[in-house]
Amino acid sequence: VDWTPVGEFTDIAYEHNDGIAKITICRPDVRNAFRPQTLVEISRALEYAREDPSIGVIILTGQGTKAFCSGGDQRVRGDTGYLTEPGTSGAVGRFHVTDLQVQIRRLPKPVVAMVAGYAIGGGHVLHLICDLTIAADNARFGQTGPRVGSFDGGFGAGLLAQLVGSKKAKEVWFLCRQYDATQALEMGLVNTVVPLADLEAETVAWCREMLELSPFALRASKASVHAAEDGLAGIQQLAHDANLLFYGTAEAREGREAFKEKRRPEFERFPRRA
Ligand code: 2NE
């Protein structure tokens, strides 16, 4: 694929081609671990992809073949979270990944994790959050939190339990083992496994298949799955999408126009549907 790079980033690359955006974490020396700057840049790139009407599907990946992402950069982990400027006295840390996870979950276009090598720790949670995962045969999955003094009790635990079952999710978190691509496929953690050499071509083929389909139906399908999983926040998204469509009807327009014209809305002409 002949990707066109867009924007100025230090930790990631944002590229696109023919309806597909590709976001690549470019920190291969640390197995694509993320620091706050990395997450801020991914978030910006996701916003670009969301706002660009020519983009229908987004790929999230890591540079090189050794890792998708190895989670939070432990070198900038402070006592209050991950630090933007480590060593700065009084620096207050954060978990930038909290908002990023929700952003991916909320994004109204499919997000596909393209995983070669390790998806570990917070990097494993990133692939979990993505809508689909295409794995290379060298991919390895796992959580390390309890080994390095951390845990991810939101999507990292809950979504994992929904995907692989509660017992298996506890195994993943309690033992911090690694699972190869075949085991991940058997567990339902990934959608398919392909030879490393075919990873991008296969991922792009899946993306192109989605690009053939109705964008709004895809958006509604994503929101529908999440409506059950995310409680009121999930229902809210689906309901707002319904409202988005309702705005285009004569009935909704009558409410808006009546308000602007300072008159009583004439809803009598609209059917009370059975
Ligand atoms: C990823 C893994 C399994 C790779 O192993 P291997 O043997 O292929 O590579 P190696 O030698 O361990 O790593 C290569 C270089 O990358 C650095 C290493 O320190 C090493 O550096 P040098 O010795 O070459 O200088 N590196 C790798 N991962 C890093 C990381 N996360 N932060 C900083 N440097 C890293 C193996 O490297 C591994 O297990 N990595 C650690 C995975 C981990 O524990 N991640 C953090 C989990 S906590 C988290 O992500 C989190 C959370 O729980 C809650 C909120 C936010 C984040």
UniProtKB/TrEMBL annotation:
The keyword Electron transport does not apply. It is an enzyme of class 4 (lyase). Pfam families: ECH_1. CDD domains: crotonase-like (cd06558). Its cofactor is hydrogencarbonate. Keywords: Lyase, Menaquinone biosynthesis. Converts o-succinylbenzoyl-CoA (OSB-CoA) to 1,4-dihydroxy-2-naphthoyl-CoA (DHNA-CoA). Belongs to the enoyl-CoA hydratase/isomerase family. MenB subfamily. This is 1,4-dihydroxy-2-naphthoyl-CoA synthase. It comes from Haloechinothrix salitolerans. The gene is menB.
